[in-house]
């Protein structure tokens, strides 16, 4: 067995072990504030999923130790593996198996939050799986069952392109996960009116949970 095959097998085994308990729905809270608008949206979503007994897991970006991508090319020689061993190892395993992934992020300088961007950059390894190894990181068998969602909040009143940055960045992530982006909910003006005070939020999240449970993309 050559070095590449060996490392593929190792990384598959590692991922399988770690993902035995993977959630149906992975919720990624990307704000630097543990109790801000993004956290509120994720908590509300989680409550609803729990109510319907949909297995889920929340990742709070503030609780993770994730180092920056080194652009070291290790993943070019080792399918599905990153040279850095930190909390990203578990995130890779969770992403590999999740049916639905929801990102919540504030808009920071028209992009995702910087902590979330560090996580996103580490997903270059997924891109390399396709680009260099011609073998996707995720199993494509159940591709039709996958769904991606984005929740983003911006402090300023709505302006042109306010939410485009997070969308195009996270859309690339979903492409690598073989997940279609089903919906991007955006809330502007959060520096004046918190999402807790928005009458539309409850209905928006109920609708999202319905979509998640119905597997809107299942017959794609
Ligand atoms: C570093 C930084 C950059 C920001 N850049 C933008 C921006 O470009 N556009 C915008 O509408 N709001 C911007 N904001 C405001 C946040 O998007 C807003 O406060 C948001 O509600 C924070 O999300 P959270 O409540 O989930 O923490 C910025 C805030 C910070 C801290």
Which helices and strands occur, and which strands form pairs?
Blueprint: H1 3-18, E1 25-29, H2 37-51, E2 56-60, H3 74-77, H4 88-97, E3 100-106, H5 114-121, H6 124-131, E4 147-153, H7 164-176, E5 181-187, H8 200-214
Parallel strand pairs: 1-2, 1-3, 3-4, 4-5
This protein binds flavin mononucleotide.
Residues 31, 33, 36-38, 106-110, 153-156, 162, 190-191 line the site of flavin mononucleotide.
Mean pLDDT: 90
Number of strands: 5
Q: Which architecture does the CATH hierarchy give at level 2?
A: 3-Layer(aba) Sandwich
Bound molecules: flavin mononucleotide
CATH top level class name: Alpha Beta
Structural class: alpha/beta
Per CATH, what is the topology?
Rossmann fold
Describe the global form. globular
- Strands ordered across the widest β-sheet: 2-1-3-4-5
The description of the largest β-sheet is: 5 strands, parallel
How many domains, in number, for the residues?
A: 1
Approximately how much beta-strand content do the residues carry? 5-15%
Descriptive account of the structure:
The chain has 220 residues and is α/β, with parallel strands linked by helices. The protein starts with a helix and ends in a 6-residue tail after the last helix. Residues 11-20 have low confidence and may be disordered. Helix 2 (37-51) links the parallel strand 1 and strand 2 (56-60). It has one domain: Flavodoxin domain (Rossmann fold). Helix content is 40%, strand content 14%. A five-stranded parallel β-sheet has the order 2-1-3-4-5, with helices on both faces. The longest helix has 16 residues, at 3-18. It binds flavin mononucleotide (FMN). Flavin mononucleotide (FMN) binds at residues 31, 33, 36-38, 106-110, 153-156, 162, 190-191.
